[in-house]
Design a protein that fits this description.
The complex is a heterodimer of chains A (about 400) and B (about 475). In chain A, about 60% of the residues are buried. By secondary structure, chain A is an alpha/beta fold. Chain A starts with 8 loop residues before the first strand and ends with a strand. Chain A is about 35% helix and about 20% strand. Chain A is globular. Chain A contains 14 helices and eleven strands. In chain A, helix 1 packs across helix 2, helix 3 crosses helix 14 and helix 5 packs across helix 11. Chain A has a nine-stranded mixed sheet, sandwiched between helices. In chain A, strands 5-6 form a two-stranded antiparallel ribbon. Chain B is of the alpha+beta class and about 475 residues long. Chain B folds into two domains: about 325 residues, Thiolase/Chalcone synthase (Peroxisomal Thiolase, Chain A, domain 1, 3-Layer(aba) Sandwich); about 140 residues, OB fold (Dihydrolipoamide Acetyltransferase, E2P). Helix content of chain B is about 25%, strand content about 30%. In chain B, the strands form five sheets. In chain B, strands 5-4-6-7-1-8-13-12-11 form a nine-stranded mixed sheet, sandwiched between helices. In chain B, strands 20-19-18-21-22 form a five-stranded antiparallel sheet. In chain B, a hairpin with a 2-residue loop joins strand 12 and strand 13. In chain B, helix 1 crosses helix 2 and helix 5 runs parallel beside helix 6. Chain B is globular, with a radius of gyration of 22 Å. The chains are: A alpha/beta (about 400), B alpha+beta (about 475). Chains A and B meet through helix 4, strand 5 and helix 8 of A and helix 10, strand 18, strand 19, strand 20 and strand 22 of B.
Chain lengths: ~400, ~475
């Protein structure tokens, strides 16, 4: 079995403005992101041989991608893997290219969150059980990791919350440097601590933006990429790990880490040949839906030793100027989180960083970039993908 | 000998200071997630308290405040109490004497050999119009008894019933609140007269006189009437009459005479003769005798412990919110528009999990999993599971969040709970002091109303801090 490394190239990418886009329809978002990617790749819509469309609730079937672009009778699959639908759509597309089945393909992730009342998509999700269970806002599932982490490592509640607040402050700063980001203002640790509690111990400023948006990518073979343009990036590895809701079934699940993150990362690192992620990765875009998640991702992905993420947060390891910048575009926190779009948006930032197009937030000599995209509340799916300049 | 083999009560944690409604004392009030069903289940679980359930073959539930006008309450009470599937269930509805009617029917069933053990529950959450008399006197609570002919702790020896047609208190299907005629009419034409007839008939039937009784337990429409009735019948209110607990509990409707009976039994000794009188569209007078077996069942949570275990609400709007009188969504945690809808057939398929709180225990590795799985999450063996009841297990909070987007019960505490003996699940926590919630906290299970959507009351188990050790 051959690995995916350097067998698929990303030759074009696009991303819409993210935010509460009351005057944009789902089709508008798909069209805008895809046209930017198509133009960037230097191809025509008719060159696209197949499509993958990632969304949680904003469009049924492949038609939702075919319709806005008037793609005619090509195969398109709609991919739903909750919040990592985007990355998973790209994973499926990459496999088709690597298998030699399709040579130029389009991937689009989109979510029109704000067409749902207050962005609550779960009122429209498929039923696979009665739902006579705890129903709660997603923040609650992540808050439980904060409670347990603070308890386990003996961080006082104040100390723990202050540590997490620094992550939100960092991402807000990065967001001010991202023209397409939803939330673009500096904040302070004190503002995070004083903002309204939403799911104790997390406050409003521990949570990401609820946004509309879309992002798209054109994938092809390295051979075709070379004929299209000089500046493209290459997929080094993609890992997806779907769990079986272990946090609620295993009484030894520790609520200090997410095993699905660890396994997805190990899978991607093995494909990409990465031994020491902290040293070898130059830039990472991770799934900071809530500050606590970015915090435990540092440990799950091997950036920080277990129980030591706090020291790295305080040392500024993950700031733009730090040893391993994380969420240079503001992350889910500030760029925003249109569920199906987020995974592709992360890759869009890595793409721009690796191609040195990231303007004022450009990280010097970025050669290897990582994206981490979680699907659902802890228990479901995690994806980790590695990208680099072609060797 | 046929009689009570086990009993238990339930009084909600919450009390309203009656100063808020211009009266002395306190009254017990159901939490926002409680109703007659959930309180009956709590009393039933207390009554069953680990005893075997297999021989319980009838379950009766008496109330005037069923959640549904059409759909039985007893079937849900029986399921949540994890009584056997092969069981006859019946509701005793619409009358305040429904509790004793159910009790007497249970005695008849056991005597007539159509049942071996019958669980009788009674519960009410009756509403008075805000600030009117009835709101001042009413309270919420439940009682449960198992009637059988083996190990009888309190034999039920005789009864005398009277019936009358009287508009004393009533409520049509269009009324939220109990209506009544003037109190002097209710007391003298109704309560005093029917009570005297029933008790008089029983004394005559049994050839007994008032002095023969250790205790008389009278339903009490208000704090004074039982004393007048006792005096009139020749009992000494000071030494013989069971305290109607008006300053601590309030009139709990159908369950009221039965909670007062339980209070009397908590204090009783073998050989005691007890007279029980219920009232409502007539009256039932019942003679009970306490046996030696009473000492075997006294280790349960009694009326006094429930009354001592309490938290006050100190503002009237909270009460109105809990009773659904301030906001249409306030019988549940969240606003309806945030909710996904429930799949009724799925709820039916999951009935053992939802109502009985059955987990699955893997026959290969003994791991308990909730909800039950087809493939063991631990050892991956397939298909060999035993259902185990988790509703009577205590547990420990492993971690938790507190949701500040909730409408009532703010903030809503949502813990991950590890059951004693194995198994883990996520629940809402109710009847808690949010300031005191922490990792490692000991909790117990309590059956509650979860949501109301599409015209359906959804019930499920929650956890609460261990209330009575």
């Amino acid at each position: 079995m051959e690995e995916i490394k350097d067998r698929v190239a990303i030759v074009g990418m696009g991303c819409t403005q993210f935010g509460e886009l009351w005057d944009k329809s789902p089709d508008d978002l798909v069209l805008e992101s895809c046209l930017e990617a198509i133009e960037d790749a230097g191809i025509e819509p008719k060159d696209i041989k197949a499509g993958w469309f990632g969304t949680e609730t904003s469009g049924n079937s492949g038609t939702a991608l075919a319709r806005p672009l008037k793609l005619e009778y090509i195969p398109i699959s709609r991919v739903e893997n909750v919040c990592c639908s985007g990355t998973d759509a790209l994973r499926n597309a990459a496999h088709a290219v690597a298998a030699g089945v399709n040579d130029i393909v389009l991937v689009c992730g989109m979510e029109k969150l704000k067409d749902h009342y207050a962005g609550f998509t779960w009122t429209h999700m498929p039923q696979d059980y009665s739902r006579v269970v705890v129903r709660a806002m997603p923040a609650n599932f992540f808050a439980k990791f904060a409670t347990r982490y603070f308890h386990h490592y003996g961080l006082g509640m104040d100390e723990g919350r202050k540590t997490l607040a620094q992550i939100s402050v960092k991402n807000h700063h990065n967001g001010t440097l991202s023209p397409k980001a939803h939330l673009r203002r500096e904040i302070t640790v004190e503002m995070v601590l004083k903002s309204p509690m939403i799911a104790y111990p997390l406050t409003l400023f521990d949570a990401c933006g609820m946004s509309d948006g879309a992002a798209a990518a054109i994938l092809t073979t390295p051979e075709i990429a070379k004929t299209l343009k000089k500046d493209y990036i290459s997929i080094k590895g993609i890992g997806l790990a779907s769990s079986a809701t272990q946090p609620y079934l295993h009484d030894d699940y520790d609520f200090l880490h997410m095993e699905e993150n660890v396994i997805a990362a190990q899978r991607a690192y093995a494909q990409a040949g990465i031994k020491d992620p902290r040293k070898e990765i130059d830039i990472a875009e991770v799934h900071d839906c809530f500050s606590i998640h970015e915090f435990i991702i540092y440990e799950d992905l091997g950036f920080s030793p277990k129980g030591k993420a706090k020291e790295d947060v305080e040392a500024g390891t993950f700031t733009l100027e730090g040893e391993l910048p994380v969420n240079s575009d503001g992350g889910l926190k500030c760029f925003g989180h249109p569920l199906g779009a987020s995974g592709i948006r992360m890759i869009y930032e890595v793409y721009n960083q690796l191609l040195e197009r990231a303007d004022q937030r450009q990280i010097k000599n970025a050669r290897i970039g990582l994206t981490h995209n979680l699907g659902g509340t802890p228990g479901p799916n995690s994806t980790v993908a590695i990208f680099g300049r072609p060797d | 000998m046929v009689g009570i083999t086990s009993y238990g009560v339930y009084i909600p944690l919450w009390r309203m200071d009656r100063k808020l409604i211009r009266m002395r004392g306190e009254k017990a009030i159901a939490h926002f997630d409680e109703d007659s069903i959930t309180m009956a289940v709590a009393a039933g679980m207390n009554c069953l308290n680990g005893s075997e359930r297999a021989s319980v073959d009838k379950a009766f539930f008496a109330s005037t405040t069923f959640p549904y006008r059409e759909k039985q309450g007893a079937s849900l009470v029986a399921a949540a109490c994890d009584l056997p599937h092969s069981i006859a269930t019946a509701d005793f509805a619409n009358s305040l004497k429904g509790g004793t009617s159910a009790l007497l029917s249970a005695v008849d069933a056991v005597k007539g050999k159509s049942a071996s053990r019958v669980m009788v529950t009674a519960a009410d959450t009756r509403l008075g119009a805000p600030m009117e008399d009835f709101e001042r006197t009413s309270g919420d609570g439940a009682a449960a008894f198992v009637i059988g002919d083996k190990d009888v702790a309190v034999s039920i020896e005789a009864s005398h019933s009277v019936s009358t047609e009287i508009m004393d208190v009533w409520r049509t299907q269009h009324d939220n609140f109990v209506r009544s005629w003037e109190s002097r009419f209710v007391d003298f034409a109704g309560y005093q007269r029917m009570g005297a007839e029933a008790v008089g008939g029983l004394l005559q039937k049994c050839n007994m006189k008032p002095a023969d009784f250790s205790k008389v337990v009278f339903y009490a429409p208000d704090p004074r009437s039982p004393m007048g009735l006792a005096k009139r019948l020749g009992f000494d209110p000071k030494t013989q009459l069971q305290d109607p607990l008006f300053d601590a509990l309030g009139n709990t409707g159908t369950s009221f005479p039965l909670i007062l009976l339980a209070a009397a039994l908590d204090e009783s000794k073998p050989g005691d003769s007890i007279l029980l009188l219920s009232y409502g569209d007539g009256a039932d007078a019942i003679l009970l005798r306490v046996t030696e077996k009473i000492n075997d069942i006294k280790n349960r949570k009694g009326v006094k412990q429930y009354l001592d275990s309490k938290r006050m609400i100190n503002d009237y709007p909270t009460y109105l919110l809990w009773r659904g009188l301030l906001h249409p969504d306030s019988e549940q945690v969240y606003y309806t528009k945030f909710q996904e809808n429930t799949a009724v057939p799925a709820m039916w398929r999951e009935r053992n999990q939802i109502f009985r709180l059955h987990g699955g225990k893997c026959r290969e590795c003994d791991a308990i999993q909730f909800p039950p799985q087809r493939v063991c999450a631990k050892c991956h063996s397939m298909g060999e599971f035993d259902e185990v009841r988790l509703s009577d297990k205590k547990g420990t909070v492993f971690t938790f969040s507190m949701d500040y987007t909730s409408l009532v019960d703010f903030p809503t505490v949502i813990p991950i709970v590890d059951f004693d003996g194995g198994g883990r699940a996520e629940f809402y926590m109710t009847d808690r002091d949010a300031e005191k919630v922490d990792v490692g906290m000991q909790v117990e299970m309590t059956f509650r109303k979860l949501f109301f959507d599409e015209g359906i009351y959804h019930y499920y188990w929650k956890v609460m801090p261990v209330r009575i050790q």
